[in-house]
Amino acid sequence: MMLLAAIIAATVVIMALGFEMLLVLGIPTLAIKEVFYGRLPDVVFVQKLLGGINHSTLLAIPFFLFAAQLMASGQITRRLMGLVSAMLGHTRGGIGHTVIGGSMAFGSVSGSAPATVAALGGMVYPELRKSGYSEKFSLGLIVSSAETALLIPPSITFIVYGWMTGTSVAQLFAGGLAIGVVLALIFAALVMVHAARQNVTARPRVPWKQRLDALFAAGWALGMPVIILGGIYSGTFTPTEAAAVSVVYAIFVEGVVYRELGFRKLVDICEASAISTAVIFILLAFGGVLSFFVTLAHVPTAISSFLAAIDAGPILFLLILNVCFLIAGMFIDPNSALLILVPPLFPVATSLGIDPVHLGMIVTLNISLGMITPPFGLDLFVASSTLDKPVTKIIAGVWPFVAANLIALLIVTYIPQISLFIPNLLFR
Amino acid sequence: MATLLKVLRTTERVFLVTIFLMMVGLFTLGVVVREVAPQYSSDFSWIEEAVQTLNLFLVFCALGLALERKRHVGVTTFRDSMPLPVRRFVFGLIDISGVLFSIYTTRLGIEMVQFVFASGQRSPTLNIAMGWIYLAPTIGFVLLGLRYALSLFGVIDRFTPDTANTPTTSEKGAA
Amino acid sequence: AEFVAKIGHLESAQQSRNIYLEKVAKLVNERTDGNVEFEIYPQGQLGNQRQMTEGTQLGVLEATVSPAAFLGGFNPAVSVLDIPYLMPQDFKQAQAIRDSAFGKELLASFSSKGVVAIGLWPNGFKQFTSNKPIEDWKEFAGQKFRVMDSNILIEQFKAMGASAIALPFGELYTSLQMGVVDGEENPLDTIERMKYYEVQKNLVVSDHGAMEDVILFNEAFWNSLPENYRKVIVDTFHEVIPDLVKDKADKVAAALEVVKQNGMNVRVATPEERKALREEVYPATKAAYIERAGDEGKKLIGLYEKAYADVVGN
Ligand code: NA
Ligand code: NA
Questions:
Q1: Beta bridge partners of C217
Q2: What is the rounded CA–CA span in Å between residue A137 and residue A191?
Q3: What value of ipTM does the predicted structure carry?
Q4: Is residue B169 in some structural domain?
Q5: Domain total for chain A?
Q6: Who among B59, B66, B73 is closest to A391 (CB)?
Q7: Ligand that lies nearest to the alpha carbon of residue A113, given by its number in the listed order
Q8: pLDDT tens digits for chain C (314 residues)?
Q9: CA–CA distance, C15 with C34 (Å, rounded to integer)
Q10: What is the A403 CA–ligand 2 centroid distance (Å)?
Q11: Widest CA span of chain A, in angstroms?
Q12: Does B45 map to a domain?
């Protein structure tokens, strides 16, 4: 126990000293391995390092990062945002709401919050700043809106949860739709408050003639969402493949149609995207090693015996569940938290009469919140990498959204009807 | 030294770009075959596995360049507020830790590569030796450790913030 | 306990494999006077199957119970179990084949891989589902089926005239929903558990693919156990097989009811159809197996064909 405390203290110190996060995760994990699991072969460290990222479902991330950087440094982003600002620029908070809507639309196809941050972040950040949103708020909004990707179907998190618990994926998807909308509405309220306080300038209304021009100018750019969404919903490709196809489309439009993408520039963007990919994946890799040792330490068993011992009612149980996930979300990658925490919690929940679909909503909302809570919030690092902003700045911007999220979590936790309304309508 | 470093950078660059474009190309090819000539798509079932493997190399082989380009994330606010001599000491501490950590991980990587090659494990559809995939972290930590060492000896400067405010990464890439 | 073994596997806590692993753990502990303890880690808590198998070789964990389909990369010889209709549908006949010289040689083929295979556990059969009609094997022609990464399974669908599309398990539900693929093959309890009936119209109970689990122990750990403990472990794993099969059959029957109630069009393939399909796909899948498993594969196929003839006839 003393040793563990010392390791945790050392971790905090090296993080505060500005060690790269890969060292902040890697060095203490090595120490845990040596101190507590000395008998395991040392190479387990490298094996789990690879295991943390060798999943096909993560492949959408590098492709969306690549496509995002192609679009951001070319014409597609500029023209899409030109269109949005022509249509919505005159409304107060219009661009802010567009970010939320864009994240929901994009998240609906990618199913991955980090991929959504990567794809949209670079595109919308300059627009938000131009409209007068503060730097902190803009960063917080971009990072938090991406959470809807896990809630709006299809969502990998629901599929994994469905597999683990035997809950209907279709019902989870249906429930997620409502939760995603609840979250989006709460964020939209934050945008309105911020826009009013900051006195974000509403621009003069653009005449319809100019709006049509903007629409035509965005023609090829609009093909991007059409291809991604259309391709997935017509069954032409999987969401992961869609990400790869979006790169090809972006290269085609920027290179052949707009003629702004030379070979040299393509190589530069490709390399920069490779580096962004590495920066994100190495953290997932170390998260994989850490969660392996958390499992070996019987943390899940400890949780179930604790719950059995205190004999909590549903209200207290849900509170404990939320706290467990929030703590786990601070330190390990949220998907690992899912694998570690759901098995001990699920049987207790069902015995308390909590609906599995409702529990799925609570868990997924926790997971998505874990993506934006410091110190280990994957989306924070993705935003830092795509927008080239220090993590601390993003963390500073994210707090109001974390608070809003906690309110959403309380609402969803204690009003099960929100989660179950659509599934009941469709399936029961 | 400068020339050697330049050759290394160019090699990494060519390698990463080739891998990434291959990943895009292969997935797209898979989609096209399935749509145009599904009867042949069984012959392309190795694509999934190939792209996943290439991605491992992409991730690890970019670690070194990422360090040199100051792209790795960390929480630097507190450190940056410290007086310069203390900060210099911390920089050294980080670089030394990075070198040692990379050396240790590389050693484990080599052990793992040898073990898996010896065990004869092969991949399911590509039928290549699985030892190759553990070469990715091994190479990656060599490249990372090298950058930590170069920073320690002052050959590269990775602590002074960039003066130009360049949000688009493409300009950085051209450096 | 003197000997503690971490045993990892992929299935969830309520599934047959886990229930019987817990049972074996309890029996072994009693029979060794508490000296051997099994810690069961279900649901891939210790990693995916490839990592768990590799981990068993390395000594990261002491044992794993793996579907044979995931072991082809470690030991090409084991892929023989991927061949459709390899095992007879009758339990006694199938068990006789498992206990035959073929079964023993199959387990022995792991010995050069740093692991000790101590037994095979039956885990049901695979069935076909599709959104397109599959009333007749001919109707498979031109349909797109999802397969696991396995050359033999790819050959199986090719021989039936269908396209085999390799997709990750996690993407399968959405891919069926969106129509990226028309159909898939899985055991009935998986079909029920993953709710594929929500996104699939038709099911043929074909029982074509035998799901066999291989029980693998780390070699160094196994050799460190006293002879009598090893025997207790092997015998206990073997002894529970009839109960395991019965438990699985009950779960499959319940799953079939759920699938039917949810409106899936269910059809049970006749013995003649099964025989015809076996004859149709056996040559191609056998060839694909031998191509990959070489001489060892040839030898195993020889032993298998002899055992099959002894047990089933012809
Ligand atoms: Na989604
Ligand atoms: Na977090």
A1: C63, C116
A2: 9
A3: 0.87
A4: no
A5: 1
A6: B73
A7: 1
A8: 899 999 999 988 889 999 999 999 999 999 999 999 999 998 888 888 999 999 999 999 999 999 999 999 999 999 999 999 999 989 999 999 999 999 999 999 999 888 999 999 999 999 999 999 999 999 999 999 999 878 888 999 999 999 999 888 877 888 898 889 999 999 999 899 888 999 999 999 999 999 999 999 999 999 999 999 999 999 999 999 999 999 999 999 999 999 999 999 999 999 999 999 999 999 999 999 999 999 999 999 999 999 999 999 85
A9: 26
A10: 14
A11: 73
A12: yes
Whether residue B174 is contained in a domain is answered as: no
Residue C279 neighbours by CB under 8 Å, 6+ apart: none
Beta carbons of B101 and A56 less than 8 Å apart: no
Please, what's the largest Cα pairwise distance for chain B?
68
Label each residue of A6-29 as H, E or C: HHHHHHHHHHHCCCEHHHHHHHHH
User: Domain range for residue A363?
Assistant: 2-427
Burial A16-53 (b: 16+ CB within 10 A, else e): ebbbbbbbbbbbbbbbbbeeebeebbbbbbbbbbbbbb
Counting Cα atoms < 13 Å in the Cβ hemisphere of B160 gives 6
3 state DSSP class of C46: coil
For chain A, positions 189-248, list CB contacts with chain B under 8 A.
236-237, 240-241, 244-245, 247-248
Q: Given the DSSP bridges, would you call strands C144-147 and C163-166 parallel, antiparallel or unpaired?
A: parallel
CB of C147 less than 8 A from some CB of B:
yes
| Euclidean distance between CA atoms A209 and B108, whole angstroms | 65
Q: Report the domain count for chain B.
A: 1
A contact set with C (CB within 8 A): 40-41, 43-44, 47-48, 51, 55-57, 154, 156, 159-160, 162-166, 168-170, 232-240, 292, 295-296, 300, 339-340, 343, 347
B61 part of a folded domain: yes
Q: Do the Cβ atoms of C57 and B119 come within 8 Å?
A: yes
Chain C, 127 to 146: residues with Cβ < 8 Å from chain B are 142, 144
The 10s digit of each residue's pLDDT in B11-59 is 999 999 999 999 999 999 999 999 898 888 888 889 989 999 999 999 9
Instruction: Count CA atoms closer than 13 A to A138's CA, side-chain side.
Output: 22
| Bond preceding residue C88 cis, omega within 30 of 0 | no
Q: B45: which chain C residues are within 8 Å (Cβ-Cβ)?
A: 147, 149, 154, 164-166
Domain range holding B82?
2-161
Among partner residues B34, B47, B121, which is closest to C54 by beta-carbon distance? Answer: B121
In this complex, is the C-beta atom of A36 within 8 Å of any C-beta atom belonging to chain B?
no
Vertex B23 angle, CA B17 and B29, to 5°: 130
